[in-house]
């Protein structure tokens, strides 16, 4: 199985596991669903990666950060459950599972599963989004749209589209349901690695908000800002964030 196939398979299967957790804990509290989802998906991914790629390192949101990854040529960067709040709300579909592979300085494979939508977007081949509408759509968190997104909306004369997890937001741009995702409120490598890999495969622009390259598997996994957008909007989006 190729790295691309493995990323897609693991993200999809972890998503199916999470749907099972949701059904099992339908009558439990949201906090119980969050905790169970995070732990079970993380445990599954760690076990599966150890079996399929025993020589590779792993950086997971839910695991202890093992410094061995900094000496490794291949590191899987995973978010077992991106959008725990949305996952805990049984009627929401905007949560995801992220599985990405970093090798020798670059993201080389990635998959974003949207389990409640029965969709997995995965490298190496991701269709480009359909033609953009007349009014750009900027996807933002439903509870706390960052100021930078409001700046971009104003600069592009766009509209805001509210959505949950980072993976779901980037997937919306990839699928043509939105046109721009810009975030500057603080994230980590596992929040964006798989979504960025998928977005790049679809031909989208990806960068930091200052236009510099996104870098992964660094000593500090904090990666606080990201831009994913249609290429034709990249110049205007970056200008609006400065």
Automatic annotation (TrEMBL):
<feature type="binding site">
    <location>
        <position position="82"/>
    </location>
    <ligand>
        <name>Mg(2+)</name>
    </ligand>
</feature>
<dbReference type="GO" id="GO:0046872">
    <property type="term" value="F:metal ion binding"/>
</dbReference>
<feature type="binding site">
    <location>
        <position position="81"/>
    </location>
    <ligand>
        <name>Mg(2+)</name>
    </ligand>
</feature>
<keyword id="KW-0479">Metal-binding</keyword>
<dbReference type="InterPro" id="IPR000760">
    <property type="entry name" value="Inositol_monophosphatase-like"/>
</dbReference>
<dbReference type="GO" id="GO:0050427">
    <property type="term" value="P:3'-phosphoadenosine 5'-phosphosulfate metabolic process"/>
</dbReference>
<keyword id="KW-0460">Magnesium</keyword>
<dbReference type="InterPro" id="IPR050725">
    <property type="entry name" value="CysQ/Inositol_MonoPase"/>
</dbReference>
<dbReference type="Pfam" id="PF00459">
    <property type="entry name" value="Inositol_P"/>
</dbReference>
<dbReference type="InterPro" id="IPR020583">
    <property type="entry name" value="Inositol_monoP_metal-BS"/>
</dbReference>
<feature type="binding site">
    <location>
        <position position="61"/>
    </location>
    <ligand>
        <name>Mg(2+)</name>
    </ligand>
</feature>
<feature type="binding site">
    <location>
        <position position="79"/>
    </location>
    <ligand>
        <name>Mg(2+)</name>
    </ligand>
</feature>
<dbReference type="GO" id="GO:0000103">
    <property type="term" value="P:sulfate assimilation"/>
</dbReference>
<feature type="binding site">
    <location>
        <position position="191"/>
    </location>
    <ligand>
        <name>Mg(2+)</name>
    </ligand>
</feature>
<dbReference type="GO" id="GO:0008441">
    <property type="term" value="F:3'(2'),5'-bisphosphate nucleotidase activity"/>
</dbReference>
<protein>
    <recommendedName>
        <fullName>3'(2'),5-bisphosphonucleoside 3'(2')-phosphohydrolase</fullName>
    </recommendedName>
</protein>
């Amino acid at each position: 199985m190729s790295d691309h196939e493995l990323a897609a398979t693991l993200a999809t299967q972890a998503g199916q596991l999470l749907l099972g957790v949701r059904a099992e804990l339908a009558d439990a509290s949201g906090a119980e669903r969050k905790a169970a989802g995070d732990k079970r998906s993380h445990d599954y991914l760690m076990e599966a990666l150890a079996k399929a790629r025993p020589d590779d390192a792993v950086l997971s949101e839910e695991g202890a950060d093992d410094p061995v990854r900094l000496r490794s040529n291949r590191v899987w960067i995973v978010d077992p459950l991106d959008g725990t709040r949305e996952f805990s709300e049984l009627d929401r579909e905007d949560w995801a599972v992220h599985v990405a592979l970093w090798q020798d300085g670059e993201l080389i494979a990635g998959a974003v599963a949207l389990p409640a939508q029965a969709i997995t977007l995965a490298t190496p081949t991701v269709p480009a989004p359909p033609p953009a509408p007349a009014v750009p759509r900027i996807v933002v968190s439903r509870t706390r749209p960052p100021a930078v997104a409001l700046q971009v909306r104003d600069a592009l004369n766009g509209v805001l589209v509210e959505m949950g997890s980072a993976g779901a937001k980037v997937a919306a741009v990839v699928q043509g349901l939105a046109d721009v995702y810009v975030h500057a409120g603080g994230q980590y490598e596992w929040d964006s690695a798989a979504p960025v890999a998928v977005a790049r495969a679809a031909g989208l622009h990806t960068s930091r908000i200052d236009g510099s390259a996104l870098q992964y598997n660094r000593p500090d996994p904090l990666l606080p800002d990201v831009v994913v957008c249609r290429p034709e909007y990249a110049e205007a989006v970056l200008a609006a964030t400065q």
